[in-house]
Amino acid sequence: MTAAKPTFPPPDHDHVRCATDAIDHAERICQRRGQNFTPIRRRVLQALLTSHRPLGAYEVIDELAREAARPAPITVYRALDFLMQNGLVHRIESRNAFLACAHDHDHAAAVAFLICDRCGSVGEIPAGPLASGLNETARATGFAPKLAVVEIAGTCAHCLSAEPPGP
Predict the structure, then answer these.
(1) Residue 13 C-beta-side C-alpha neighbours within 13 Å
(2) What is the pLDDT of residue 2?
(3) 54 contacts 94 by C-beta, under 8 angstroms
(4) How far apart are alpha carbons 42 and 38 in whole angstroms?
C-alpha cells in the first residue's frame, strides 16, 4: 500500500484533485489487469469519491440518480463487486457500506479501517502483521480463516483538534 496518502486527508484538501487522482488510479489498474472500466463502474466509483465517508449501496444509487436515470440495484452491486475484486473499493462491514480506495494494493491486502465516530470519515492503514497474528491465532484453534476485517472506531485527529479545550 502506498504510504504517500494521508490516513485522513485534511478537511480543506483539494477533494476534486483527490477524486480525479483516484479515477486515474482506477483506470491504470484496470488497464494493467486487462479489465474493462465500464461507464457504470466509473460512475459508481465517482459516487463513492464524493467524500471520504462510506456509502451504502442505496446511497450510491441515490447519488447516481442525481445525474441520470436511477440504476437497478443489481447493476450497482455488480459494479461494487468488480471494484472490490480489483482493490478499488472496500466494504466496511460494521456499516454495511463501501469506501473508495486509491491505494495501490490488491483486494487481498490486509488493511485496517479507522472509523471516526464524529465526522464519519474512514482512514485506511496497512495491517499485514496484525492480520497475520490474528490468522495464526485462529489457525492454532483449528479454525481456517478466510477473511479478517479490522475496523477501529474512534476519533480522527482533525475532529480531536477541533474540540474546544477541556475545563
Answers:
(1) 17
(2) 43
(3) no
(4) 6
Q: Which three cell numbers stand for residue 101?
A: 480506495
How many CA atoms lie less than 13 Å away from 96 in the CB half-sphere? 3
**Grid coordinates in use for 85?**
475484486
Express each pLDDT in 2-21 by its tens digit: 445 778 887 788 888 889 99
* Whole-number Å distance between alpha carbons of 98 and 80: 8
- For CA atoms 157, 163, 164, 166, the dihedral sign is negative
- Helical H segments across the chain, by residue range: 15-33, 39-48, 57-65, 73-85, 128-140, 157-162
Q: Is 58 helix (H, G, I), strand (E, B) or coil?
A: helix
> Would you state the cell numbers that stand for residue 18, as one nine-digit string?
483527490
pLDDT digits (tens, 9 = 90+) for 70-127: 999 999 999 999 999 998 999 999 999 999 987 776 556 788 999 999 999 999 988 8
Which residue type, as a one-letter code, is found at position 48?
Answer: L
